[in-house]
Amino acid sequence: MSHDSFENGCACIDGDYVPLSEARISLTDMGFLRCDATYDVVAVWKRKYFRLNDHFERFEASWQRLRMSPPLSRGEMREMLDECVRRIEVEDAYVAMILSRGMALPGVRDPRVMQNRFYAYATPYVWIVKPEDQEVGTHVVVCKETIRISNEAVYPKIKSFHWGDMVRGLFEAYDRGGYTAVLTDADGNITEGPGFNIFAYHNGVLLTPTTGVLEGITRRTVLELAEELGIEARPESVTAQVLTDSDEIFITSTAGGVMPVTTLDGEQVGSGWPGPITLQLRQRYWQAHDEERWATPVASPEDIRHERGFGAP
Amino acid sequence: MSHDSFENGCACIDGDYVPLSEARISLTDMGFLRCDATYDVVAVWKRKYFRLNDHFERFEASWQRLRMSPPLSRGEMREMLDECVRRIEVEDAYVAMILSRGMALPGVRDPRVMQNRFYAYATPYVWIVKPEDQEVGTHVVVCKETIRISNEAVYPKIKSFHWGDMVRGLFEAYDRGGYTAVLTDADGNITEGPGFNIFAYHNGVLLTPTTGVLEGITRRTVLELAEELGIEARPESVTAQVLTDSDEIFITSTAGGVMPVTTLDGEQVGSGWPGPITLQLRQRYWQAHDEERWATPVASPEDIRHERGFGAP
User: Fold this and answer.
1) What is the Cα–Cα distance from A101 to A81, expressed in whole angstroms?
2) Are B31 and A28 a contacting pair at CB < 8 A?
3) DSSP A300
4) Which secondary-structure segment (H or E) carries A308?
């Protein structure tokens, strides 16, 4: 039945592994028809997950707050992620887990009665800013026509597919010559952009916004590594003016790590080149992917049989 | 290949007609992974569409504002809707048209390069409030913990699947003994609920909110019919207090028409029974489904051949 190979991605749908391009969900999935789903994305680097447990914990907090419950245990979900990663046969992968509200029965709209559904997929590692573009830094626009969906409407701490504000912001950024966008909240504070958090190095302190943001695992990692490196860093409200006055700016995401920003609204940031704090943190970030505290090897089928007590092969 | 019948619904995916329960879209559809889609829903009543052109016009305005473009002409989309309706073999149907941003190529996130995709489906007519429940009226809660996604984040006039605020509001309504929810905006003005607009008959004037709302076709129909009936009616900001002080409340949707509300936040509205203005408008609304200005028969294949000049069968 499969016409494509797994090299561009592998998905697990209802226990079946299929090439990502052939993965299908129901048209009536409320994850689609109501954007009623949550997800998380973990990176695999050199065949090791980075902070897998932290991603699972955030994922769990998200579905609990949405009053969902996955049909599988964490161990079962983990096995599906492992198998998706193995099938694409790459060292470095982007691995997504999705929990959807599930399908509505005909004419039934009550989300409480729907059976939640789990989907997983892995693709070769995704870079929001490609490595070669990171060398010169990327171009960010602070949107004026679009603001972030407020916390009082949809919780930003629950990772969701509510990207209408982000896509609208992207078009504004393209129109103004930017590569990507960041949105403010209704009070004019910087929040985040499509798939990433933002950091500003300002007056010798590394700042990252606190409101209207997903608490990114890469963001957390940068805050922790900054502390280890003796760089003063704290989550704090960041106005557009503070961002403009910063010496360095970078964005962070599981999809690309620590990515330098060298123009803001068309104006040069600092020297116009990726700054020393940014480069130091980016280097440490990638080094950390091999450290035992955060790295979890992708399991082989033999590992799984062994853990279950079936003995080594 | 089909295991289900068409009686619960028929979908058209890439030109194929399938039972709705078997209709599938790609997991990588940005309509799912980014909620990047718009849709519209038109009713068929006694095998006639109600205000089909108005729905197509709103749909067109929505995708234009999202900078999308359907892969089909309006005539081709219409033929798909017709065929979906014919296959379910009912008199009264709920007919949906969806335009999605489409699939991302591996690693590509730019919405400008994606090929937009059209999906259609029809089901037997859907009632947000079932006819037997309309006889006593339904129970609405004004949410206190959740507000509507703001116009500055996601345009409410573009019909979209951004329902995170609505689903969160529904859970609050359930917790407080309600059947459904309405949300206010950040200024405390009433907006709308999951899939419906709201009307309040207050001091002899029929009011309906203006901000944070989709401009529903049923809402427009009620405003037009009220004028014909000599009922003073106008779109105007409605506070939660005005709603509380109203003599009658009803909600409107293509999925259910004019539906009386008889408790608000657990308190009786007016007499506690559907009021005379509500009942008069509900009656006129259903009568109007047979009027030539608004009714368009579902075409048969013969009609279509005839229009195309292939001659009658």
Assistant:
1) 20
2) no
3) P
4) none
Q: Is A195 on the interface with B (CB under 8 A)?
A: yes
Instruction: State phi, psi for A104 to the nearest 5 degrees.
Output: -85, 145
ipTM score for this prediction: 0.95
- Helices and strands counted in chain B (H then E): 9, 16
Using DSSP, how many helices (H) and how many strands (E) does chain A show? 9, 16
pLDDT surpasses 90 at B106: no
Predicted confidence at residue A26, as pLDDT, reads 97
CB contact under 8 A, A149 and B152: no
Contact A152 B147 (CB under 8 A): yes
Global confidence as pTM: 0.95
> How far is it, in rounded angstroms, from Cα A308 to Cα A304?
6
Q: Which fold has domain B131-290?
A: D-amino Acid Aminotransferase; Chain A, domain 2 (3.20.10)
Query: At the topology level of CATH, where does B10-124 sit?
Result: D-amino Acid Aminotransferase; Chain A, domain 1 (3.30.470)
Question: pLDDT for B161-216, tens place per residue?
Answer: 999 999 999 999 999 999 999 999 999 999 999 999 999 999 999 999 999 999 99
Using pLDDT thresholds of 50, 70 and 90, give the confidence band for residue B305: low
Residue with tokens 């103004």: A176
Reduced DSSP (H G I as helix, E B as strand, rest coil) percent helix, strand, coil of chain B, to 5: 30, 30, 40
* Cβ neighbours for B104, distance < 8 A, ≥ 6 positions apart: B28, B30, B33, B114
Q: 3-state SS of A224-284?
A: HHHHHHCCCEEECCCEHHHHHCCCEEEEEECCCEEEEEEEECCEECCCCCCCHHHHHHHHH
Q: How do strand B37-45 and strand B93-100 relate by DSSP bridges?
A: antiparallel
Residue B1 scores a pLDDT above 50: no
Q: Is the dihedral of CA B16, B22, B26, B32 positive or negative?
A: positive
Pairwise CA distance, residues A17 & A177, whole Å: 40
**How many beta carbons lie within 10 A of that of residue A187, not counting itself?**
10
Residue with tokens 């919405």: B111
CA distance, residue A313 to nearest chain B CA (Å)? 35
Residue B124 sits at the chain A interface (C-beta within 8 Å): yes
Q: What is the mean pLDDT of chain B?
A: 95
**B177 vs B113: CA distance, rounded Å:** 47
Distance to chain B for A11, nearest Cα, Å: 9
Nearest-angstrom CA–CA distance, B18 and B12: 6
- Is the CB of B67 inside 8 Å of chain A's CB atoms? yes
Domain residue extents for chain B: 10-124, 131-290
For A255-309, write each residue's pLDDT tens digit. 999 999 999 999 999 999 999 999 999 999 999 999 999 999 999 877 766 666 5
All residues of chain A having their beta carbon less than 8 Å from the beta carbon of residue B194 are 109
Give the span between the Cα atoms of B27 and A32, in whole angstroms.
10
